[in-house]
Amino acid sequence: MQKTQYNFDKIIDRTGTNCVKWDLRSLYFKNPNLLPLWVADMDFETPDFIIESLRDRLNHPVMGYSFRPKEFNRSFQEWALKKYNWDIKPDWISFSPGVVSAVSIAVMGFTEPRDEILVQPPVYFPFFKSILCLKRKLKYNPHKEIDGRLCFDFDNLEESISSKTKMLVLCNPHNPGGSAWTPEELGKLAEICSKHDIFVVSDEIHADLVFEPAVHTPFMEAAGDHALKTITCMAASKSFNLAGLSTSLVVIPDAKIKEKFEDLMQTLHISGGNLFGAIATMTAYSKGWDWMQQLLVYLKSNRDYLVDFVNSELPGIRILVPEATYLAWMDFSSLSMDQDELNRWMTQDVGVGLNSGTMFGPGGDGLMRINFACPRKQLEVALQGLKAALEKL
Question: Which CATH number goes with the domain that contains 138?
Answer without folding.
Answer: 3.40.640.10
